[in-house]
Every structure is written in C-alpha cells, then in structure tokens.
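pinned: reference chain
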Amino acid sequence: MHDQPETIVAGHICLDIIPELHSTAQFIPGYTLEAGPALFSTGGPVANTGLALHKLGVSTRLMGKVGDDLFGHAICSLLAAHDPSLTTGMIVSSDAATSYTIILSSPDVDRMFIHAPGCNATFGADDIDYAALTHTRLLHFGYPPLMERLYRNTGAELVTLFQRAKATGITTSLDMTMPDPHGPSGQIDWPSILALVLPYVDIFLPSVEELLLMLDRAAFDRLARKTSATSMIDCVTPALMSALSQHLLDMGTKIVGLKAGYRGLYLRTAEALQLKDMGRATPEHIAHWADREVWAPCYATDIVGTTGTGDATIAGFLMGLLRGMTLEETLSAACAVGACAVEATDSISGIQGWQETAVRIAAGWQRLPLFFDTPEWCWDNQHEIWSKQKENEGTTNG
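pinned: its structure tokens
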C-alpha cells in the first residue's frame, strides 16, 4: 500500500454474518430451520468495494466507522488480515455499536438481509479526512440510505461531504443501496436529495431497482405488484434506462452506471465538456467516452452467493477508469469482477487479481444472453456490448 493511495472508499461498513443454508430452506413461523456453519466477513461498500480494489492492485484507503466492541474488533481484524494499513483510516467510536447484517443467502433464492445500522447512522461530513483527499485521485462513497445522519434534513450532510470533497479536485463516485420501503429511509424525499448532491458527484452507480424506488415510487410499486423481487429487472427496458439516466445527467452527474443484476451493467455518459471537469480521475481519451449509451451483459458463471456483487462490479469499473482503459474495457472489467464475486459465499473470496481475471476474459469467457428488439440499439460483436446509435450514425453491427 502506497503512502498516497489512488482511491479512498468511504461510508458504510458492517460485519456480515452468513449462515450456510440448503437450497431447500424454507422460512416458516414457529419452526426451527437447521443451518450449517456461519461465515463472518466484512460487509458494506467500504469493505466490499475497498477490498476488491485492493485485490485488483489499486492502492486504496478505507474510511468507515465501527464501535469499540466485539463486532468492531472483528471488522478491524478482518481488514488487517488483507493488509494492516487498511485499518489506518477507520474510526473506532465508543458512542455507538458496530453495524451488522445477517445475510440469508441460498443458491436458488435472492439474498435477504436483517440489518442493524449501528454507528453508520452517526457518520457525517466531518468523519471524512479531507486532507487525505488532496493527493488522491478518486473518492468512492457508499450506502447513504443506511446512514441516517446523511439523509436527514434533505441530505444536508451528504451534500456538504461531496461539496468539500470536490473542492479538493478529486473525482467523486457514489453508490446507493435499497432504502427500506416501509422504514424511515423509504419515506425520504430522495429526488430532492439527488438534485442537491449530484452536481458534486462525477460517477453515480446505483442499481436500477434502487433508482426506481427513489425517483419514481409509483412505478416501483407497480412493478413490485406485477413481478416477484427476482424478476423486476426483467421488465426494465432500454427506454426506461434512457429516461432514468437522462434525468440523472440533467441533475448534474457526468457518468451514470445502472446495475441490472443478471442483465448486466448499463452506462450513460455526458458530453465531452462535462467529462473534462471530472477531477483527477478523468477518463483518458475523453472523446471516446463522451455521449455514450451502452449496456454490457454479465459473464456466465456458477453462482454460489450474490452478496457484494454490485460492490465488486463497481470496483472493476473504478479500476478500469483509474487504469486508463477504454469504455468497453472498463465495462468488461466491471462485469468480470462482479461475476467472480458470485463464485463465493462472501463478497471478497471469489475476486482474483486483475491479471488472473484478464486472462480469463482473454480466454473467451462466455457472456450471458441479452437481447433487445429495439432498432436504435445494435450489438457490437467485437466488444460484446449493446450500443445505442445516435440519429446521425449508422446502424450496422460492429
């Protein structure tokens, strides 16, 4: 780890407790469900994205808050096992308990969570070491919907955090998580918060389900009634992605990445003039990155667990950006690292170094099928992505 890291990952961190469940597990009130051994691992974007970046060879510093208790000590111990320097940016608070998540994840059913926010609820703008940002290229922040202090008062603390970060000249990235539709975070005016914070966010990387709940609750509720939790993304069309991403670009962010589960990663970028103002991690070859709208399929793999997949995908994307990869190479890296993550029960064990992952891609790693019956979207066979053609462009396949 270098004295001056390339990236800082800050925000939510917790201890994940993952009991081993059989594929036939059914939760029935009043009955005991037998489980296997429990896996303990770090969770949340600070650990998931931060450790993934570290394993991919990107020098990284972590900034999160834990309690001075058994779970907090366990988190610091797990981080130090990867590299002792990863704990140097962590805050140990004596005023609140450590956050934890019990993850119910079986091979045949999407994961479910029981989450205690703990001291993440007290994390504020003053918990960021802004002096450290001055010599760092990129700040990635994650999971404001699980951090009460940040979303209170129309996100005033979150806006202050990103304003102060951008003033250092750094490139900023923001990830979300699903607000509890029936809890306090689900009742917040997220459109107003996003309108205030996105002018200071260069890269915005939520899932499409999270974004629908935040920006169009009525549409989210209609889809939730119409589909099961695992098939909502089946109803997401390119037109919907275009509308959502345009709304976000109009709010002021410059790169929008929408995670769509097994349907891959959608990306939309602003015009070149906006991309030039992204800070120290501005993409190389801006003209190639500017004004693009693409959708990359997932890589095919055997799924063991889905915990942390989105965080790993983000790590692959940020690594590609920091390493000066093309837009297509960056998307490939994002999808590949996300695919590696699902090959293990926890969020980190399946991730390999970038050299090993790149070899796997070069060997012809197969993609999952993704089809659009929309004239303006064309399949680029060379890069294995769908690309939306502009009105003045041809529509021949690459």
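why pinned: The CA atoms of residues 377 and 388 lie 4 Å apart. The chain has one domain: 7-24+35-388.
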